[in-house]
Amino acid sequence: MSATYLLPVGLLIAFAATAVAAPQLSLGIAPVTQKVLPRASVTPLTGEGLQLWGAGAEQVGTQLVLTATDTALKAVSVTLDSDLAGAQAAIGRDHVALLKVCYVPVPGKGEYPDPLPPLAGEFDIPAGGNQPIWIKVSIPPHQPAGVYNAALIIKAQGTPPVRVPISLHVWPFTLPAAPHLRTAFGLWNNYILSAHGVKDGTPQAQALKEAYYEMLLTHRLSAYSPPAPLRSSQGLAYRRDPRLTSFTASPEDVEFLAAHGLLYKALFYPVDEPSSKNSYDKLIERGRRIKAINSAAHIVTPFYKRPDFAPDATPVDLLAGITDVWCPNTSMYHSDAQLRRQLKQRQQQGEQVWAYVCCGPGGDYCNFFVDQEGIRHRLLFWQLRQQQLDGLLYWGTTYWGKVTNPWHDVTTWFDDASFGDGSLMYPGAEVGIDGPVTSQRLECILAGMQDIEYFTLLARVAGEQAVQDFIGQLVTDFTHYSTDDNKLEEVRRQIGDLLAAHSR
Questions:
Q1: Omega before 251 cis (within 30°)?
Q2: What's the rounded Cα separation, in Å, for the pair 101 and 167?
Q3: Which has the higher per-residue pLDDT, 462 or 19?
Q4: Angle at which helices 464-472 and 485-503 cross, to 10°
Q5: CB 101 within 8 A of CB 132
């Protein structure tokens, strides 16, 4: 990521009629993948203001970085002045979210940006400090193409108001409601209720479960379990939602799911990460029982290494005919060439190959840790698409069992180094919200999921090689890739322009 200088607002003649008196405010800009540290330099904002590009049904964002250059800024506020107005249509201001980028302490590394609560009221900025404001626009489906304009008004004690233009360029195509990459993300309701101080079984508890579940869905992610029993009208409605690509199920549900046309979405998960002979024997025995009920039932098996008792064998050698949703850790998929060949063959036979990350892999692998570059959270999806994998599994999004409060402690996993592992949302109770607070990592994941849709559309109009060529501009494999945030944005715009040309 490049570090440049901030431009004092006093020089932004297009934004303010008069020079800014001390305390001095400077404005910068950062893409959604850039993690703006509390005192880092960022790209200066120019006279054209904030520029965003997106398609119908897409959520697009950027960061406006406010910096107090000399002395602390007091009573700072940021507001949207109007709807986003286009030549023939508008996008209501209710489709624009202003979020405050908050920081969490990472032991030994300082503060990192992650929680994104809604911006509410005034705030202060310490001298020399940054305060990024996250601007997120949810473009309605089939929104007429064109440029939509509005402005942000920034006020601070002792400074004149500053007007920052926003231009949203909408392309003439719409992303589908149903994601093309399947997902299965864990959602720990017990920790949600505990963090909010709510007792299970109450209306408030149900509302919280639904709110956290819906936040994942709006980020194009499928939770392990919808917040209603399967054998209820609401439970069936949740599972029929086209935004939901998978859910976990029990063997006793096989026939019920088949009768209601939902077996294709269900994942049966007999054993997690088998390695011992005992775990393999259990998986095979349980898998056979499920397949005996209905051979179309899908058995998913995550694994990160070869069997301990047969190191020359791969999981495919032992589980073919049982598992049909293969789910290796990305490091194993990348490093085990024999396994990778076998999985490609199983995929050609109609089975699915997913991948997963958790507390590993680390190092150069892309993952969802708080202290990783944000672009890595997004490029993981480019890597999955490069390999034409079918899905991504992630074990938890609200695992707060090890910490008292994830706003103040991100050592959420037991190795005390996988910061934020299993925790992609924050309990809103910390900021007076009866629901979840999104994170920069979750927004980068959303961007990656939307990139998958761009690649899918691109393959239809220009062929698979075009997809691989665009991905290849940033990604070589799972450990070799560019971390240039601006290059990623440039490539995405090139794809959008190409798709727009084919849509006219």
A1: no
A2: 21
A3: 462
A4: 160
A5: yes
Phi, psi at residue 503, to the nearest 5°?
-90, -15
For residues 79 and 328, what is the distance between their CA atoms, to the nearest angstrom?
46
- Residue-level pLDDT at 24: 87
- At the topology level of CATH, where does 7-174 sit? Immunoglobulin-like (2.60.40)
Helices 440-462 and 464-472 sit at what angle, rounded to 10 degrees?
140
Assign 467 to helix, strand or coil.
helix
Q: Which residues contact 450 (CB under 8 A, 6 or more apart)?
A: 58, 59, 175, 220
How far is it, in rounded angstroms, from Cα 331 to Cα 170?
37
Query: What are the phi and psi torsion angles at 32 (to 5°)?
Result: -65, -25
| pLDDT recorded at residue 5 | 29
pLDDT, tens digit, for every residue of 34-55? 999 999 999 999 989 999 999 9
Taking only the tens place, the pLDDT of each residue in 413-442 is 999 999 999 999 999 999 999 999 999 999
Question: Nearest to residue 170, comparing CAs of 285, 293, 251, 59?
Answer: 59
Q: Would residue 101 be called left, alpha or beta, if left means φ above 0 and alpha means ψ between -120 and 50 degrees?
A: beta
